[in-house]
Write a structure and sequence with these properties.
By secondary structure, the protein is mainly α. It has seven helices and no strands.
């Protein structure tokens, strides 16, 4: 049911963020997992807000870098950024991180 869907969107995003923070870099696997997680969680404010500022900044920097380097996926990256930055918590994480602000 819908409950199960919410749980998966939350885990998909959380796992993607965790692997980004663990692995770093700009790997395609990380990007695909992140995109899936963000799109799955876009209606799920609880899942989107379940990160600390440091994790949010890592994700935003990753996406900003990717938008610059990988022209092919830029529109998808920007869509993910739009979804995330619609949340006040992500927005303030972005404004607090100078690196992110420069990228955006």
């Amino acid at each position: 049911g819908p409950q199960g869907l919410m749980a998966t969107s939350k885990t998909a995003l959380a796992e993607a963020v965790r692997s980004l923070c663990a692995v770093g870099g700009d790997g395609d696997e990380v990007w695909l997992a992140l995109k899936r997680g963000v799109l799955a969680a876009r209606k799920d404010t609880v899942a989107l807000d379940a990160f600390d500022v440091e994790e949010m900044r890592r994700v935003l920097e990753f996406l900003a870098q990717r938008a610059k380097k990988r022209r092919a996926t830029k529109s998808q990256v920007l869509e993910c950024l739009r979804i995330l930055l619609a949340r006040p918590s992500w927005c303030s994480a972005a404004l607090g991180g100078s690196a992110v602000r420069e990228e955006l």
